[in-house]
Design goal:
The protein contains six helices and 21 strands. The protein is α+β, with helices and mostly antiparallel strands and 347 residues long. Helix 5 (288-306) crosses helix 6 (312-322).
């Protein structure tokens, strides 16, 4: 482990108060680091399934570096003027060789089997670092999807990414910072009874959350539904606003460092998360109003569980006084709301 990544891990652990010093040292001594750079051998295209064979098996505390790829054919990228040397061979091979696709469009790297994870547990995913991996990406409008279906024709733009300055010129005289890239889809396998499911709608297995607050330094908690959890990540987003209203972010390839722990002491109905400054609850439903209700109920449950001196009336009041609710996305069939609960109000 390099000094940079060791420092990041120490800061994150200290910030969240996860481990005692002795435990922290023990994890460092025991942990291993693995790397998964997207290739036909370690991806699944467009679906989650409990039947997938894991590409690696790790122990809690281990770190996995995951690099995904953009979701446009490299041949088309060359036609758009992207130099061939800016595209990895694994990226090219995926589009040449993988035929088992769908029903969704996302190229997912994994799955990773975490030893000791059992249905009913919670998988703690520490997102230690997320970096831009490619010099290009794209954004697309759909004639049938997005927030305004039927109002626009299909349209797309290839966007160059300035890796040094972490910016993209999205339009004439419009330059957007790209300081917080994140994986749009991070999830575990659903229960075996669900079979093979699309990567498009998120669910209690997390998946296509498209949550811009899940970047470097955040932690995602996901209910486990099958032995080993079977975690995968993909759908790299260089930059995105809350809502993802057109149906796309700046879709590109990212490199992320993830550390995994199995939480036997947590029981969750829905994914939750946290950042250094906030706890995060989520509501997912086809109806945005229902998603909001779920997120508010999750807020109340979280507050009274973590702070038992507060009752549900007080928790509902605090949800209104201090919690910011965001439309995570409203374009993935199952829509998302997430609430940001500030840590600093609790003394």
């Amino acid at each position: 482990m390099g000094r940079k990544h060791l420092a990041i891990l120490i800061v994150i652990s200290a910030t969240f108060g996860f481990l005692s010093l002795n435990s922290f040292v023990g994890v460092l001594q025991a942990q291993k680091t693995y790397e998964l750079k997207a290739s036909p051998e370690n991806i699944h295209w467009g679906y989650f399934s409990a039947e997938l064979e894991p590409v690696i098996r790790i122990n809690p505390g281990d770190i996995v570096i995951i690099e995904d790829v953009p979701r446009l054919d490299p041949i088309d990228m060359e036609k758009w003027g992207i130099p061939a040397e800016e595209m990895s061979e694994g990226y090219r091979r995926i589009y040449r060789e993988v035929t088992d696709k769908g029903p969704g469009p996302h190229i997912m790297v994994g799955p990773v089997y975490i030893n000791g994870a059992e249905p009913g547990d919670v998988l703690e995913v520490r997102i230690l670092e997320v970096e831009l991996a490619y010099t290009f990406g794209y954004s697309r409008l759909s004639s049938r999807g997005g927030t305004l279906p039927g109002e626009f024709e299909r349209w797309e733009r290839i966007l160059r990414i300035d890796l040094e300055n972490k910016t993209t010129q999205a339009a004439e005289r419009v330059v957007i910072p790209m300081n917080n890239p994140f994986f749009g889809s991070m999830g575990v396998a659903p229960a075996a009874a669900a079979g093979r499911i699309s990567t498009v709608p998120p669910g209690n297995y997390a998946g296509n959350l498209d949550n811009k607050d899940l970047g470097t330094g955040s932690i995602l908690y996901i209910p486990v539904h099958t032995k080993g959890a079977l975690f995968s990540a993909g759908d790299g987003h260089g930059v995105q606003g809350h809502g993802e209203v057109s149906i796309n972010a700046l879709e590109t390839g990212l490199r992320g460092r993830f550390q995994f722990f199995v939480r036997k002491d947590m029981k969750l109905k829905w994914p939750r998360a946290e950042t250094p400054t906030h706890w995060m609850v989520m509501g997912l439903h086809e109806d945005l109003d229902e998603a909001m209700k779920i997120a508010v109920r999750e807020t109340i449950d979280f507050i009274v569980e973590r702070f038992p001196h507060l009752d549900r009336n007080e928790a509902f009041m605090l949800a209104s006084l201090a919690v910011d609710y965001h439309v995570t996305q409203n374009v993935d069939r199952t829509k998302g709301i997430h609430g940001m609960i500030p840590k600093d109000i609790f003394k």
